[in-house]
Amino acid sequence: MTDKILVTGGAGYIGSHIVIELSAAGYAPLIVDDFSNSSPSVVPRLSEITGHDVPCVTGDIRDRRLLAGTLSEHAVAAVVHCAGLKAVGESESRPLAYYDSNIGGTIALAEAMADAGVKTIVFSSSATVYGQAGSNPIAEDAPLMPESVYGRTKLMIEQLLRDLARSDPAWRVALLRYFNPAGAHASGRIGEAPSATPNNLMPILAQVGAGKLPEIAVFGSDWPTPDGTGVRDYIHVVDLAEAHVAALAHLQRAAGVTTLNLGTSRGYSVLEAIAAFERACSKPITRRMAPRRAGDVAICVADASAARVTLGWVARRGLDAMCADAWRWQLHRDA
Q1: Which of 61, 86, 201, 321 could pair covalently with 317 via S-S, beta carbons 3.0-4.6 A apart?
Q2: Catalytic residue at 268?
Q3: Which of 13, 27, 150, 268 is catalytic?
């Protein structure tokens, strides 16, 4: 029997790519999403790309009853938890919304999973749990000192899931700390499509290239980096999605909690990323230097060696492929 995997936030940017890779690996994914930062039009496109029906339940992850019913009705074997609010800057001005959605939603989900007897979860955590790391690349045992409300919610959820696994050894938990997801599916049919003005670098670059935004604001030109702009470890969203499939396979043979960084172990500055996108779209990208943004850090690059050893996984796609795929997605959206 094919294992059914519930993907919370499965119509969103990262969740939708995970759905595709789960299907390709022989799983039967289903989605719970409230479409607060995604579109229902993604779901039929996922069915077309995968060649399989992808069931979708519209609802909020804070709705424990809805979640428990969905888990039981579909005989779900495991959960990939992507749902939640995710903008670092916004989290500083809307802390209660972030604590309510991210932590409250995870508590409701964990309670529903316990009710349904589903005790395997892969959680979308974040490199923001490290904050201003003392050294780079960052390994999983680095100090955890998040600089933003968003990062603190991710760290609290990690601790919540660790405590849950400690209280009941039947739980199998993977905490996957994403660095900077970018790019889009090679089909050009799905990609990052924020419902409001984008916060992440790649969709902003795509919209500037397409003439939908006049410029990109570069937050900070005085960081202690070679060109003064922030350095990040950008990881292709398809590589990221493939890691979730590998994590599920790992949890079938490993109980307890597994914590892993997901990145390429290579950092690029904002200006280097802009140059790469200019190559992809064959256009100049107008940029404006702006003050540093609250909650940001200078450098954040993964030591992803543990994921390679534990999962047999490694990121295979580089920055130029991320930019090319993101631009292709933008052109498909505009067609």
Answers
A1: 321
A2: no
A3: 150
